[in-house]
Amino acid sequence: MNFLLDGPEIGTATVLLAHGAGAPMDSGAMNAIAEALAGEGLRVARFEFGYMAARRSGVRKPPPRAERLLPEYLAAVNALDARGPLIIGGKSMGGRVASMVADDLHTGGRIAGLVCLGYPFHPPDKPAQIRTAHLTGLKTPTLICQGTRDQFGTREEVGAYALSNPIELLWLEDGDHDLKPRKRISGFSAADHLQTMAEAVHAWTRRIVQG
């Protein structure tokens, strides 16, 4: 398995990130996220699911159901064999898949926590199709970073969900699914929100790692 690595060789923790459904591990959004987290002293490792890696060879495959990707995420954890504390997570679908394997890994002492960046709480324009059943009893320390106008789950919508107590939410004002705000409306830039996200992930990681 191939990884893209950023940040210090030994950081506060290693953050393993999977990509979203439609963009690779080296998309503009993933590059910016990795750079911001690495700038806070975190070791960042990115990987691709098989269907996305196949596209690099010209084989166009649609993303499978999230449940079918669980073995691939677990294989990435095993292949990475991180030294020190490990946080798993990802962008959109990647974070959702990570959230579905998190409790078993956390119970086994293999990960310290879970970070989801733009969690897909429901498909766009389909707010009734909620993807939160496993989040109501999640036991793994979790940080979800979400834009307030994310079409996969706005602040108003998510506020009505029954999420477990270990889940913390960082809301980024006027951010979309890539956490990007409309500067003229919010007064924030994409760089502002990425920095806020990275600082929050680092502070949260230090807190859960130190107990």
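(ticket continues) Second input and output from the same batch:
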Amino acid sequence: MKKTLFFLLLGSNLLSFSQLQVSTLNLTTNDLVYDSVTNKIYASIPSANGANGNSIGIINPNTVTLENTVFMGSEPTVLAISDNGQYIYSGFTGSSTIRRFDVATQTAGLQFSLGSDPFFGAFYAQDIEVMPGFPNTIAVSRKRPNVSPTHGGIAIYDNNIMRPTTTPDHTGSNVFEFIDSNSLVGYNFESTEYGLRRMSVNAGGITNISVNANVLTGFFIDFIYKNNTVYATNGTVVDISSSPFVVGQFSNATGPVVYDNYYNKVCYASYGTGSLTFKRFNPTTFLLSDSLPITQTFGNAKSLITCGNGCYAFNTTDNKVIIIKDSTLGSVDTELKYKIHFYPNPTKDYLFVDTEVEIKEIKIFDINGRSINNLNFESNSMYLGNIEKGIYLAKITDINGNTTTEKIIKN
């Protein structure tokens, strides 16, 4: 086994273990998501954090600082981000609502009620997922806190309009993931049925197709989905390409899980008896690739995300956000050291740039990385009236060769 070097830098919150570096931000949070365009982590911050509670917090993973907070509502909890980075949706425990956060404008927007059960009261969001390719459409696993089981079925919402057909309550899918825009996989962790469900989505709503009991087992188990495979928070690996079956087990992996597309690893913030360890596994052999003890926290991990290539973040029950970075990966761009502002953003025609230094070049790309040609940047402005509506990336290079990338929206 390759030996690694372990040392503590005195007077710093930085810990190095081989190539992995750990930084800590003291912040009370419920959930985390990441937007690759803004290169920011977005956190749901409850009122327990103090004056800036009941908000979405914007965290810079490079500087490990909370840059801003935006008020969202009473006790924000679960978050979900659209695959194009346009919207973040938040559920709440203080209100029976969903609210949408616009990433480009950094503002709280559309808010709507989840309604109520005529016998058991208001619905609250237990899990939220945004439909792939459709940033205005979400699926919500609803719960009723004063009922056992709490599950109130999954519903599909287009903006604030619910499609009429929902899945049944009680025995259903507390947590779920989209397979594609027409199908989902979900898991029931509130009864000993332990059902792993396939669900279908159409214009009328959502329906159960099949259920397989006891493939996954355990209360309050969550999972992620990748390439016809379910990776569960208890370390179980399930193939769902046909009838679900267990294909492997990650040893001593218990905690939130994320798939690292850059390194092709399955990562866990794994907690044991009084300790927490960050682990990366091979998704094919199920063998441990590396393991990093996390000594900066005494709590358990709550959610785990990637935050760029070689970057991971999770929040803890003792009110910390832990950011882990692979120090062997250098940044592709030399980031600008000053503020740059596009306006108006969103825009219908002209996009203007306000900055402190001369801009050499601006290149526009669509969200798939394709360059948009025949756009001329002159006199700190660019005409976008002849391109389609949508979200684009603007890569800016100044006269000193420094670069940065910003998100723009064409209406």
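Agent notes: The first strand starts at residue 6 and ends at 8. Residues 1-17, 330-335 have pLDDT under 50 and may be disordered. Closing as not reproducible unless the customer responds.
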